[in-house]
Please model this.
Amino acid sequence: MVKSVLKLENIAFAYPGFTIKNITFEVQKGTFFGIIGPNGSGKTTLLSLIMKFIKPISGKILVNSYDISKLSHKKIAQQIAYIAQDFNPAYDFTVEELVEMGGIARASTFFETTIFEDELEAALRTVDLLDYRKRIFSTLSGGQQRRVLIARAIYQNTPIIIADELVNHLDLGQAVRVLDYLRKLTEDGKTIIGTFHDISLAAKYCDQIAVMKHGQIISIGSPQEMITEELIRTLYGINVKVISHPQDNYPLILI
Model:
């Protein structure tokens, strides 16, 4: 039986002008789970609820059977590595210093963090930044900075990686290389959850896709079930043609 690593039960949240309601779904271990939807549909808010950055009005969120309302942020960080959409550190950290911060969650104290050099190098090599390890983070391009944050999540070595706009700012080549690597992680039992603007990439890599609109999950299923001409028209108000990839059979959108 496949284990559920994340479970949301009737989650509701509200702030002026926006409401999330009746969010219920599960994510299975080893799944690449994507979330799509137009801007303002609630994708980032949903991830913030999962990470306990904000608290729901009602409902329950379980991570590996733990109720997150009863977990410290450090305990959550031992379960989930999180990649925010925007990240602007206050100090001039180097690339390797920022990646090493991913190890704080498994340290006994903040000042006694062990550096796992092999894991550090492997994480940086994955995103093609090993030669940049001594560079100051703020001197990098937006895409390079994004790759540093992905390396930090890999180094954090958690069973779950969650990312808001997983490959935001990356060129197509780097996006594919990173997603290929994350796809391999799912084969080892890790779970990847990410929001996507690029629906074609979501269709290629995700096992399951949740579709959000106006603060609700309106549908969940395989890419073939979710990426349809009707759904794209419902979400974005445009007419497209959806075809199947000639070799891999995932849906492609023609504008």
